[in-house]
Amino acid sequence: MPFITYLSGLLTAQMLSDDHLISGVEIRCEEKGRCPSTCHLCRRPGKEQLSPTPVLLEINRVVPLYALIQDNDTREAFKGALMSSYWCSGKGDVIEDWCRCDLNAFDENGLPNCSPLPPPVLRLSPNMEPSSTVVSLEWLDVQPAIGTKVSDYVLQHKKVDEYTDTDLYTGESLSFADDLLSGLATSCVAAGRSHGDVPETSLYSVIFKCLEPDGLYKFTLYAVDTRGRHSELSTVTLRTACPLVDDSKAEEIADKIYNLYNGYTSGKEQQTAYNTLMEVSASMLFRVQHHYNSHYEKFGDFVWRSEDELGPRKAHLILRRLEKVSSHCSTLLRSAYIQSRTETMPYLLCRSEEVRPPGMVWYSILKDTKVTYYLI
Q1: For residue range 116-128, what is the model confidence (pLDDT) as tens digits?
Q2: Which of 124, 156, 127, 148 is nearest to 137 (CA)?
Q3: What stretches of the chain adopt beta strand conformation (E)?
Q4: What are phi and psi of 299, to 5 degrees?
Q5: Spatial separation of the C-alpha atoms in residues 197 and 227, rounded to whole Å
Q6: What is the pTM of this model?
Q7: Signed CA dihedral, 4, 7, 11, 16: sign only
Q8: How far is CA 128 from the centre of its chain?
Q9: For residues 133 and 213, is the Cβ–Cβ distance under 8 A?
Q10: For residue 364, what pLDDT is reported?
Q11: How many angstroms separate the CA atoms of 376 and 255, rounded?
Q12: Which terms in the GO cellular component ontology are assigned (predicted)?
């Protein structure tokens, strides 16, 4: 039977049977082109005219699948099965806004785990570009309408370098409920809570203000529910922007070092040059080297002159600091001209007005806590 014939017959049967209309289903056929001549299923026997091409039916009303079932008992059973499959992983029953897990839906710690704990997605805030010392991160609340209750978010941050094992060293951990919203965290971290694109969704944000320039940082976030379960980790790894360098001062230091190296260098002049180069930052030292070589390389480059005037040991102590500068920042520091730009950024600092007993984990802390916002 051609498909169009099947649809026409089904439509005719529905129109003739007024007592058993199919709830939520509408069948409509339209003439929109013809089937290709190579399709033998579209040809009607005895007729040369080709049947119309079937058109995808449009959805004009959305109803749950169980609403299409006429029998009350079957409909309730189907509804319960669908709710259990969607909210409780098919291993429990939905009771109001939580899941009652089956006896076989417990983890190795004896905690019910039929209700999944969705992981939060940590991301850089699109409203603020990371700087050399400030980074803003945000994530949407993952609290489902039914099932597990998120009581807290734990944010870990650490600086990654060759001296730390990224797997063994977890860094500093901050509880969003106990440390950030309560205002007990360091002044270098500010937290906020606002509404996402959907009014019912909360958007949490954390601003780190005291990071080191040109540093590689790893931020890890996970959710904690009222039973103590942890969600999967969400990680953001980034390198902060290059530090600010006073180009004019760097050029002045390069001239000073050249004058100290020029001619006979006494012990006092050697110590002055050594102290000057050790007191500046690694990025400033890189820029001093750039200016020195740009102006005075014909008298010997910076590395050779430092080793010749200060000796291998002191020169090594100075030059090894250049290894701390990343390849990205070293490329920028070789630029012919550096322009400094300073921006100010207002942000909100949150402090909880409620006093909670230590060690208590409340689901309402993320939802119902009264928070005072300070404009910094």
Answers
A1: 888 999 999 888 7
A2: 124
A3: 92-95, 98-101, 123-124, 135-140, 150-159, 172-175, 189-195, 202-208, 216-225, 234-239, 348-352, 371-375
A4: -95, 5
A5: 29
A6: 0.63
A7: positive
A8: 14
A9: yes
A10: 44
A11: 41
A12: endosome; membrane
